[in-house]
């Protein structure tokens, strides 16, 4: 169980890293269809941002499946925020909620750590 708690803590750290220092202004503005960057489709930047988060979650847990789930969830949640359906506060709560789900998947053995790494 200590390994699951460590993975959860590392996912939270990775989330903070991915949403703040690893997301520059270019990406933060351009990943939203309302504030596009000339010549770069918004979904390229949102996709790249989601892949960064998925990679960080995958590394934190040692599980490629969690990385893939995180990528999809992060893209979907940020899309909801970009469309104005949810606030930044709800966005962050949903992202942390995903980490709780991923840790639960590890704790129950639905997915295993070090599946690929």
TrEMBL record:
It comes from Allorhizobium terrae. InterPro entries: Phage_phiKZ_Orf197. This is DUF3307 domain-containing protein. It comes from the Bacteria. Pfam families: DUF3307.
